[in-house]
Structures are given as structure tokens and as C-alpha cells.
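User: We ran a pulldown and think these components assemble together. Before we commit to crystallization trials, I'd like a predicted model of the whole complex to look at. Sequences follow.
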Amino acid sequence: MMEIFSDIINTNIEFCRYFGQLAHPENALTMCLAVLVGIFFGVLPGLSATIGIALFTGLTYGMALERALLVLFGVYIGAIYGGSVSAILVNIPGTGSAAATCLDGHPLALRGEAGNANILARISSFIGTIFGMLIFLLFTPFMSKLALQFTSPEFFWLAIFGILICGSLASPDLPIKGWIAGLLGILMAMVGQEDIHGWERLTFGNANLITGIPFVPMTIAFFGIPQIIKSMKGAATHVEAISGQSRLRVWPLIRRNLLSILRWGSIGVGIGAVPGVGENIAAWVAYDDAKRRDKLGQKFGTGVYEGVMAPETANNAAIGGSVIPLISLGLPGSPPTAMLLAALVLHGVRPGPMLTVENPGIIAELAAIILWGAVFLFLLGLVLTRFMVKVLNVSLRILMPIIAVLCVIGVYAYNNNTFHLKLLFVFGIVGYFMDKMGYAPAPLILGLILGNLADAFFRRALLLSDGSMLGLINRPIAFFFFLACIVTILNQLGLVRYVKNRYFRGEKT
Amino acid sequence: MQPSDQQSNLKMRNKDVLFSLILILSSVSLIVYALNMSIRAIRTVGASFYDAPGFSMLVISTWLLVLSSVLLVVALKQGGTLRWLAPGQIRTALWNRSSLKTLAVFIYLFLYMIGFGQPIPGIHVVIPFWLSTFVFLVLMMITFKATSIGYIIVISGLCTLITYLVFGYFVRIPLP
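Assistant: Here's a predicted model for the assembly, 685 residues in total across the polymer chains.
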């Protein structure tokens, strides 16, 4: 325990040092531009944080790791905030995470309070990002220490739990579709040479598949290409932005809602830390929480300030939350962090329990980057929001072909292999049809990332226990994750609710 | 539920029936493939059944089979059918403006990502990336009437130039 505390104190000292280092004009300018680009990606409907990071992963290929992290986190933080601008002003969420902000943000704009809604979104995003960063800074050393004790069964169950929970929460239609997507991702991860016997699986004699299906092209294929196709075939809409001045006394409102803000921040961090789920769900859960607890609950949807603050605090807090499992376990907490994982791998860094041992300063460095991102988000939002809305006048039919070009360059830069462009095309089309059938891409990508680990750890655990399935659950953490998997499945089948109602509340269902 | 919601729900269930059947067939094939691979590994490299290369695939494919069967049952219970695959209905579904637009995007993406990288038959010359990028941008924007042709050519030219300068020259990323 003392060791963990001393780790946390050391991390905080390192954090202050990195924060000072990042104040260097060159770093500050890089971060400022990255946040600006991120806000641009966030403001434009169809361009999300994931696509922004995916495109910049290729662009940062030639940069040093520190500079690349500045750019990628800047884009991430900026995009999550930027989504709220178009959500408030034109009722179109720029990113999925701002969908909940539309509900009260746009009615506020229609009432002539666009400025108020914008300022609340900006301050809530700022507080959320700082809150997420603090939790990341304090909890990641603890999580990393815990993760060092993980062996094959723990990793196997963690991978399965991540896919199950991500499938349940991220699937827009039926939870079972999320699970199916996760399983398809695991099967895709099994393509190529396996770890234990070096046997080739599902390669069908194609030498390019021996190393497996890489997840960088797949992430772009499943997130980017369907969006390009949808935007190109959609109607060319012209949007009219509403402007409005701010006349709100913000600080009394923040003070009055301080406890709620902490709760929404915690919701954001908690959901962000669940593998693969991310800020979209966090925003909705926080909005629902605000609606249920607030005295003005019934007025939600008509332009309530808390209806903007809750989702914006949670979706930005989820940034810090989603980086916790990425750094400590190597599991991305959200689709954009799946891209960040790809970028880290591209720079020769393998996130996971050993990362903090090999690179002890990484937690402090990332926290300092997130804090600088929050500062620039606040400043740029203050100065540029009104000008950023102008980008909404750019037609998606001009932007999307350019995005397609950047996708191709990003995928090719990953490994200089034209075969990956063929994969991009084929799986982009598959992704489009899966999207049309209600299959979320997040569980599939998570399955692809975790599939190889789950497979190797599963068989290794069985080897160690001489083929006994009990070997998979006879350690406390492994048993905990096993139970979590069972509860997740039973919950989706409605059995948990039935038992609660029948035996604990005495209701007859 | 609104009638329009009901209709879109029914459409989704129709698609679910087809996709679950495809998944059932695929998972059965994968189970057979995984079993064959495991048996070969047990015979040739002396692997045991649970560490054989096909074991995890066998487990995952079995789960997939179960889940896709559940999906099929759910879809059928909610009114999903395969009647929409009748030739007349398929023709109506495919021969409309939206489907043709989708097809056009598919073709352009195919040409850009795969087709332009291949040597031109007969003369064995590969189109350079800058030219394929410019042609792709112009074709996409003209087909979808993004703006006037003059602007399209200027925007495409500028984008190609900037892309080439930024990625190929400043960041030094090898381009296709």
C-alpha cells in the first residue's frame, strides 16, 4: 500500500515537471492547433473524435512520441467539446457524444440563450476533462499495480467481460447484436499465425494474412468508411446557426450544482473506464441521472441548463476514464482510445501492465497533456466558437471525399502495404452493411483488439490447469470477472430484474 | 410505437433473419474448420485438445451459433421473414436513387483503393497516386454535385497538392 502511495506522489511530482515542460511555446502551439483541429472535427457532423484521431495517427507517424501524443490528445479533447457547438446551435450533434446535449442545448438556443448554452457546455467540458484527468492521475498507478498480478485467466475473463459489456451498452438495436459483433471481432483476430503452436488459421494461403488482420486499417474501415458512404448518399443539407449572447451568471449556477457535477464527472469516468464503451454512453447516462434527480426533471428537453451541463461534464470526464484501462491494461476504454492504442503501437509503445514499468513517466505525461488540452479547450472555446460555426457551411460532399483520401493515406502509412487498402475497402463495405443492420462497430473492434489475447490466455490457462475449466476461475480476480460476465448476460436476459422484483421488492411480475 | 417505427423495426427484423441465417451457416463451417485443424494438430504436433489451435475458434464459433440462433428466433417472433428477398421486391429495393448512390460510392472507393493501384491492362503502367487522388476527388464531387465544376477542380487540385506536400514532403510518409 505504501508503495502505491509513494508511486502516486512520484507521479504527481512528475506531472508538475511535465506540465512545466509542455508550457514551452513550441509544445503549446502544437497543442493549441491540435485542439483547434479537434474542435473543427467535433463541430462537423459526421467527423468524430475517432475519425480525427484515425487520420492524425498517420500524420503523426513521423513525429516523436511526445509530440504525437500532444496532437492526438488535443484532437480528442477538442472533438469531444466541439460536438456540443453544433448540437446547441443547429440541433445536429457534431459527435455521438453530443447527442444528449441537443435535447436541452438547442431549445436554449431557440430561446435566445445560445451564448449561455455554449458557455455552460464549455465550462462543463473543462471541469469534466480536469476531473477525468485527476482520477486518471490518482487511479492509474493503483490499476497498473493490480494489473501486474493478472495472469492468463484474469486477462481472459477481462477480455470477455469487456466485449460483453461493450456489446450490451453500445448496440443501438438489440444487445445480442453487440455480442455477435464482439464474437466476430474475436474470430477476425484469430486470422493468422497463432501464438502457441505457430499454426496458420483462416489465411487461405494468403501470405499477407499470416501476421493477422491489423486493427488500425480495421478501425478506419469500420468507423470511417460507413460514415463517408452515409454522408455522400445523404441529402445535401444547409444548416443555419443561431447566435446569442451570454447573460448568465455562470458561477452561482456551477456552485449550486457542484455535487451534481462531481456525480456526472464520476459517471463519465466510470463509464469511460469500461472497455470499449466511451463518452457517448456516458453522456446519456449522466443526462438521465440529471433528469431523474433534478427538481426540474419534467422540464428537461425544453431548455434546462443542467441538461447541457450533465452530458458535457460526463463526456469529457470519460476521456480521462477511458485512458485508465488503456494504459494499465492495454484495453481501450472508448473507440477514440482504440485509435490511440493503434497510434501508440505505431510508435513502438505497447500499452498494458508493463508500460508503467518500462516507461514510468507515461501517466504523469499523459495527465499533463490532458490538462493542457483542457486549458486550450477553454481558451479556444472562448474566442473561436462563433467562428467555428462557419465551418458548418462547408458541404459534407466536399469534405467526405477528402476524408476518404486521408483514410487511404493513414492506412497505407501504417505498414506501407497495399494489401491493407484492399482490407480497408472490403471491411469498409462490410462495416457499412453491419451499421445498416444495427451492429455497432465498437464491440467488433474491441473483439479484434482483444481476440488474440483472449485466445492465447484461454488456452494457456487450460494448459496450466491441465485442461480443467476450474483453472479459469480458481483465482479471486478471475472469479470476480467470471461472475461479472455471468451477471452481464443474465441482466440482458432480464433475469436479474426478475429476481430483484420477485424476491427483493415482493412484486409479482 | 409509431407506425413508422413499427415499419422500420419490421425491416430490421427482416434483415436479422437473413443475417442470422448467414451467421448460422458461417459458424457451422467454422466449427468444422476448427475441428479439422485441431485434429490435424493433435496428430502432427502432438497438441492436446484444449491447447490445439482450433480450440478457441471452436468455442467462439459455438457461441456464435447459439447467439445467431437466438437472433433468428427473436427476429421470427417479431415478424421477420425472407419474403423481401423475392425477385420483384429485391429489384424495387435495389433500383432506387439511394441504392444507386451507394453503389456509386462503392465503385469510386473500389477504384481509388484497389483499381488505381493495379497496372493498366495492355500497357502495364500504374497510375501515380497524385493523379488517382485528383481523379477520385473530381469524380466523387461531380457525381454528388458538391459544388460547381470549376470549384471542384480547384478544390481537388489544391487538396491533392496539399496532401502531397504535407504527407510526402513535410511528414515524409510513404504514399501508395
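Chain A has a mean pLDDT of 82. That may be worth checking against your pulldown data before setting up trials.

User: Thanks, that helps.
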